Amino acid sequence: MDVTLLGLRVLREIAERGTFTAAGEALGYTQSAVSRQVAALEQATEARLFDRYPGGVRLTAEGRALLRHAVIALDALDAADRELRGEQDDTGRVRLGFIPAAGAAIVARALAVLRRERPQIEVSTREGTTPSLVRALRTGALDLALLSSRPPFRSPDTDDPPLHVEPLLEDRLVLAVPADGRFADRATVTTDELAGQTWIASLAGIDEPLLGIWPGLPGRPRAQHAARDWLTKLHLVAAGVGVTTVPSTLLSAIPPGVRLVGIEGVPDERRRVSLVRLPGPTTPATDALAHALRQQAAELAE
């Protein structure tokens, strides 16, 4: 195959970002330049690499196969570039992605422990949704990710090779309500009582779920406020402008003015937080961060 390094970098960026436009912005190229690189790759490989759909693209089976080899080749070239420049190797660096709910409950505490015990390890972090973090793992942009799943707790994707998924913590959703509001003195509420409530939710994308509204509520719950950040959602609850759902493990991070209550008459909404990575060998730095994350998850589970 007569492919270029630029073409492979474009392939990897599109696979991570999910759109030609976002990939172009990350690389500093126009969308038309990205499209030309993809067309050249598809001509060289004699295969369709992406399925187009409204709002983005997804890799085809052929695209996923090429990506696996592209990641290896690009990482090797980056390592060669660092060695030729005399730069220190990056075995002491770890790139961690995490879902928003895991940031305050697990990640911050694990990084504090790691900083005290292994200060030589350099960790960079990225918050995102489970679909976006899976893409980042597949493209080699992340080493580890804390991801969330619902029963029956399947792997976050079905691509090859299968991801290494290690369950860390099981949790349940609860409702965050204003501490001086209608449900201030209640331990639980009913679904009927939630009718007409104003909800605070995150924005939903093509393959990214709407978070903040209790799943399966009858009718059409009204989401009047949108925010991705959990702390922003909780402060909006404290301001009395609506309610939202949160994992019960966020109890220690709940700001003043917010109470957590359960919902009667519906099955528990269980969530599992798992530590996910690509299969294969890991570095001592990655192992140390994984150990710190396991410790914090175990403390939350007690």
Can you put this structure into words, describing what you see?
With 302 residues, the chain is α/β, with parallel strands linked by helices. The radius of gyration is 22 Å and the shape is globular. It starts with a helix and ends with a helix. Helices cover 39% and strands 24% of the residues. The protein has helices spanning 5-17, 20-27, 31-45, 61-84, 100-117, 130-138, 191-194, 230-238, 284-301, and strands at 50-53, 56-59, 93-98, 122-127, 144-149, 164-178, 188-190, 198-201, 222-226, 244-247, 258-264, 270-277. Helix 1 crosses helix 2, helix 1 (5-17) crosses helix 4 and helix 5 (100-117) packs across helix 9. The chain contains 9 helices and 12 strands. Helix 5 (100-117) links the parallel strand 3 (93-98) and strand 4. The protein folds into 3 domains: 5-84, Orthogonal Bundle (Arc Repressor Mutant, subunit A); 93-169 and 271-301, 3-Layer(aba) Sandwich (D-Maltodextrin-Binding Protein, domain 2), CATH 3.40.190.10; 170-269, 3-Layer(aba) Sandwich (D-Maltodextrin-Binding Protein, domain 2), CATH 3.40.190. The strands form 3 sheets. Strands 3, 4, 5, 6, 7, 10, 11 and 12 form an 8-stranded mixed β-sheet that branches.
Short note summarizing the structure:
The chain has 302 residues and is an alpha/beta fold.
